[in-house]
Write a structure and sequence with these properties.
The complex is a heterodimer of chains A (171) and B (414). Helices cover 9% and strands 37% of the residues of chain A. Chain A has helices at 19-29, 127-130; strands at 2-7, 10-15, 34-38, 44-45, 60-64, 68-77, 91-98, 112-115, 138-147, 150-157. The radius of gyration of chain A is 17 Å and the shape is globular. Chain B has a domain at 16-126 and 222-235: Thiolase/Chalcone synthase (Peroxisomal Thiolase, Chain A, domain 1, 3-Layer(aba) Sandwich), CATH 3.40.47.10. In chain B, a hairpin with a 1-residue loop joins β6 (207-210) and β7 (212-213). The longest helix of chain B has 16 residues, at 34-49. Chain B is globular, with a radius of gyration of 20 Å. The chains are: A mainly beta (171), B alpha/beta (414). The interface between A and B is large, with 50 and 48 residues. β6 (68-77) of chain A pairs antiparallel with β6 (207-210) of chain B, so a sheet runs across the interface.
């Protein structure tokens, strides 16, 4: 089974053989972030894997997570490599640490999800929004429709949350 | 380091050496195939060692499917191989393959092994990714190409940025890596970029992927490079003073190396784990090393590795790379050729070649040749001058694959 979506002019092929990754984006398509949770040790993981990185068990169940987190690190791309992204510079590469499972299984571990900063409708954010973002910022997941029941999880500034003073690259 | 055993050799300490090194020119637009360049570099290494093609019976290479494989290069030079292996990989491959060559020779599979890397890194497959990344994507690649994350700089930037956040490392400190390597390159007639640059030059160059300016990124060049590994007994019959391998680490990983940003403090890199193999096996510690080759794909990669291999305390890498220690004439110069930031990009092998020459006390700078054909070094490190480190006996190379894995080798003057 191969389903074909589309994003920024790029065809996206969802090959059914890649069960773990296809399931992840299918859940996003239904509007709820799900992560694999190990049936044996109970720890969640990201990105999708074929066994548990903490106990090697192959058995896992997809469980919903809230999709709220704090910016752990970021990069700001000014020179895009991929043609599809050249129209959006500067754009942010975000590493967002979810509120769930912080400092587990060890101190400094966490569920750190990647994505771009986008608007509430899932479009790439404007330079004005990009300039607001720094380490420590509170972010909320947004789903960008890819067609055929799939979506890409992205991140927007959580305007409902009190924002701490964020750390930005010194200019 | 009190817990290091220096009294007895561990594993193959002191049993193998690098006896030959070879290069092509470092250029943009070689006008040659990787096959022609690879042949030239391997031939140069064999001649440098004072060996003949008949002495070579092992060959290894690494590439990202952008090179020519060993049987073709060997065939062009009339070398009959008892062993060959061509592996996938970029940075961190050189040191890992040195260790594998030692193991292969130890197993009796061959006697003398050439390792090469041949790449048109500017005119064919650009290392920065330019020209790639169009077309369709899969579910798996939505996690990277789906968010505009495909180049090495984009992949490593979270680690670099977090180091600045965790430890207060400043852009000015980081820029000093490029400044120092450009000073070294100005004394290297082969270097692609020989112009000395200032901190201001680095910080005012255009932003590529914050925190990386253009001059924080290595050069992209076309070149081939080769080294020859053999047993110590044979090494002393070769033309030059051998660079004796004391210890080697191959692609040592952080937990969850493929998704290293999931695990632990991401401002710590693989050297944190590799050091516990490297130093005890070498029987020396970082304080004993007189010249380093810390992989400089980016300014930050040099800093992070020097820190995690223990050349300074964790978090003090910014100070270490900006206080003069790493400069020629300083306590422990780094990348005296100018490295990947200035000399040319070879995925690490040229950084090992440079330290082999340092240990011979015969780097190819502009110093005059003596009657024996060796340079008479002046130790005057001003522009266009000397780049030989005085009386160097021990070197360390630290190869970078990603923040999640790396390799290393300690070499001694034979």
């Amino acid at each position: 089974m191969v389903a074909v979506g589309e994003y920024l002019g790029m065809p996206v092929n969802f090959d059914g053989l890649d069960k773990e990754n296809v399931t992840f984006f299918r859940h996003c398509g239904s509007g709820q972030l799900h992560l694999q949770c190990c049936d044996d040790c109970g720890l969640k993981r990201y990105p999708p894997t074929t066994a548990c990185p903490f106990c090697a068990s192959p058995a896992a169940t997809w469980e919903p997570v809230e999709g709220l987190g704090t910016l752990y690190s970021y990069a700001e791309v000014h020179h895009a490599i991929q043609p599809a992204f050249k129209a959006f510079t500067p754009y942010l590469l975000l590493l967002v640490e979810l509120d769930e499972q912080r400092n587990l299984p060890d101190e400094f571990d966490g569920l750190r999800l990647q994505g771009n900063l986008v608007t509430p409708t899932g479009d790439m954010a404007s330079p004005v929004q990009v300039e607001r973002v720094g380490i420590g910022m509170r972010l909320r997941v947004v789903y960008k429709d890819l067609g055929d029941g799939f979506a890409l999880p992205q991140w927007m500034i959580d305007e409902d949350s009190a924002q701490p003073e964020v750390w930005r690259y010194p200019e | 380091m009190a817990d290091i055993d220096t009294t007895s050799g561990r594993h193959l300490r002191g049993k193998y050496a690098i006896v030959g090194v070879g290069e092509t020119a470092y250029t943009r637009g070689s006008g040659l195939t990787t096959r022609a360049m690879g042949t030239e570099a391997v031939r140069n290494a064999v001649l440098d060692a004072g060996l003949t093609m008949d002495d070579i019976d092992g060959m290894m290479s690494y590439s990202g499917n952008d090179s020519t494989m060993s049987p073709t290069i060997a065939g062009d030079l009339g070398i009959r191989l008892n062993f060959h292996m061509d592996v996938i990989g970029g940075g961190s491959s050189t040191e890992a393959l040195i260790g594998m060559a030692m193991g292969v020779i130890e197993a009796g599979m061959c006697n003398t092994c050439v390792i090469f890397r041949s790449m048109n890194g500017f005119s064919e497959v650009r290392i920065g990714g330019t020209g790639r990344g169009g077309g369709g994507i899969s579910a798996a690649s939505l996690f990277n190409r789906g968010i505009g994350l495909s180049s090495a700089g984009q992949m490593f930037a979270h680690t670099f940025m977090r180091h600045m956040y965790d430890y207060g490392t400043t852009p000015e400190q980081v820029a000093m890596v490029k400044v120092v390597h450009s000073e070294h390159a100005s004394n290297n007639p082969k270097a692609y970029y020989r112009q000395r640059v200032s901190v201001d030059d680095v910080l005012s160059s255009r932003m590529i992927c914050k925190p990386l300016h253009l001059l924080d990124c290595c050069v992209e060049t076309d070149n081939a490079t080769a080294i020859i590994v053999t047993r110590i007994e044979q090494a002393y019959d070769c033309r030059h003073t051998p660079a004796v391998i004391q210890s080697v680490v191959g692609r040592c990983c952080k937990p969850r190396a493929d998704t290293h940003y999931q695990s632990g403090p991401i401002s710590t890199v693989a050297g944190y784990y590799a050091k516990d193999i490297l130093w005890p096996n070498a029987g020396v510690g970082p304080e004993d090393i007189q010249v380093t080759g810390a992989y400089d794909a980016f300014t930050f990669t040099t800093l992070l590795q020097l820190e995690d291999y223990g050349f300074c305390r964790k978090g003090e890498g910014g100070d270490y790379v900006s206080n003069g220690i790493t400069r020629l004439g300083g306590m422990r110069p780094n990348n005296t050729s100018g490295g990947h930031l200035c000399e040319g990009y070879t995925h690490g092998i040229a950084l090992v070649i440079e330290n082999v020459r340092q240990l011979r006390h015969d780097v190819d700078d502009s110093c005059p040749l003596g009657d024996d054909g060796k340079r008479v070094h002046t130790y005057d490190y001003r522009e266009d001058g000397c780049r030989q480190v005085k009386d160097v006996e021990l070197s360390a190379n630290m190869g970078w694959g990603t923040p999640g894995y790396g390799s290393a080798v300690v070499m001694a003057r034979g």
